[in-house]
Design a protein that fits this description.
Length: about 400
């Protein structure tokens, strides 16, 4: 594959300690302040140590510690996958476009682990019954920092620049549809950039993709499902690894590209069925370039032994965060588990309950200790009966 050299990715703003493989393995339960016991279920999420402002306020797919810089005249797509810019100079100056793409290629896509548990309940609405879906927990954990190399990362995992499609691979090379090229006419990244800028077609776009490779998602999914299953959860569990901020698209300055991004106009075309004519028209007049990919390896191989990792293995990551994930699931949390939450969980006792402060009064301290033991026993009894089942 052709390559365009660029600078080495900068260090991330946040990193876990790669040597702490078993940091969280000693704590595997919810803290005391997270626990209340209704008659028929485990506790609803009540009170946890405060998390970072972004984790509390944002309920998106993204919470990255490695923030990508904003581009002029740009916005993020509704599904949070694509940064779209209409800045004219990117379509008029090849060196300006190339520098922007090199800068953007240093930043990994946002990589997340998400665990969602739901169950259905039958409820009576006036004279009829209806089934509703109830979310038991929606726990999200950012993994973007695991893609950012450090000074100790093996040199084989350091990537710079771009990858371009091989001659026989079909891709958007400035046409309406994907095409392949002969080996003798293969182009590198610079040539594609120049062909985009010099194109005479007014309606065109150029896209940079960010791609993650060699992450054992299936193995990590198995570990997470096993962990949540150990709480005796009986609902419907979904574990996924959403990837966002993984594309940058440049649109050329023209009225077609300006109007195609306006939400009100899009709805107008939907409701009036004018999309039947507009979509074929846009497809016919638009030329696309999607030939540049910034690759971010998680490790040296998808699975197996003797793998080298950019930061740490999937198993080491799981060991560090499993106590926090388990606590968040039992607390019916809907939001982000961050570093502050992990530290608070680590500081809990072996039984997962926060240590009660001493009041200086022997009678009061004894009562608080008895209450803590009662909560621990109640939690174990509730877990033994299972929770989150359909009803």
């Amino acid at each position: 594959m052709g390559k365009m050299t660029g600078s080495k990715p900068p260090p991330g703003f946040y990193r876990d300690d790669p040597n702490r493989d078993d940091a969280a393995s000693t704590s595997s339960a919810v803290l005391m302040e997270d626990v209340e016991y209704p008659d028929a279920d485990l506790p609803a999420y009540q009170d946890v140590p405060p998390v970072a402002g972004k984790a509390q306020s944002q309920y998106h797919e993204t919470q990255s510690y490695f923030i990508q810089p904003d581009l002029p005249k740009s916005h993020l797509s509704r599904d949070e996958t694509t940064t779209i810019t209409h800045y004219p100079l990117y379509s008029q100056d090849a060196s300006f476009l190339g520098q922007m793409l090199q800068d953007q290629a240093k930043y990994p896509p946002t990589f997340t682990a998400r665990m969602v548990g739901t169950h259905t309940e039958t409820r009576r609405n006036k004279e009829k019954q209806e089934k509703v879906t109830v979310t038991d927990f929606d726990v999200r954990l950012d993994m973007t920092h695991l893609l950012v190399p450090s000074a100790t990362t093996h040199t084989s995992l350091l990537r710079s620049g771009f990858e371009t499609p091989s001659p026989g691979m079909k891709a958007y090379r400035g046409h309406r549809t994907k095409t392949a090229t002969a080996a003798e006419s293969a182009e590198d990244a610079d040539a594609y950039i120049n062909s985009y800028v010099s194109s005479q077609f007014p309606v065109r776009s150029f896209t940079l993709n960010r791609h993650i490779i060699n992450h054992d998602s299936a193995g990590l999914e198995t570990l997470l499902k096993s962990l949540i299953g150990s709480t005796n959860y009986r609902g419907h569990l979904q574990v996924s690894f959403p990837i966002t901020h993984n594309r940058v698209t440049v649109y050329s300055p023209c009225w077609q590209n300006d109007y195609r991004e306006k939400t009100w106009l899009r709805w107008f075309f939907y409701l009036t069925f004018l999309w039947i004519f507009s979509w074929p028209y846009l497809w016919f007049v638009t030329r696309r370039w999607e030939v540049m990919t910034a690759v971010f390896p998680y490790s040296s191989a998808p699975e197996g032994r003797n793998r080298e990792f950019v930061v740490k293995s999937e198993h080491a990551f799981f060991q560090e965060w499993k106590a926090s994930i388990r606590r968040a699931v039992l607390g019916k949390m809907q939001g982000w588990v961050d570093e502050e939450y992990r530290v608070a969980t680590e500081e809990a006792g072996r039984d997962g309950l926060a240590r009660m402060p001493s009041t200086g009064n022997a009678t009061a301290d004894g009562a608080l200790g008895f209450l803590q033991q009662a909560v621990s026993v109640g939690r174990d009894v509730a877990m033994a009966g299972g929770w989150g089942a359909d009803s």
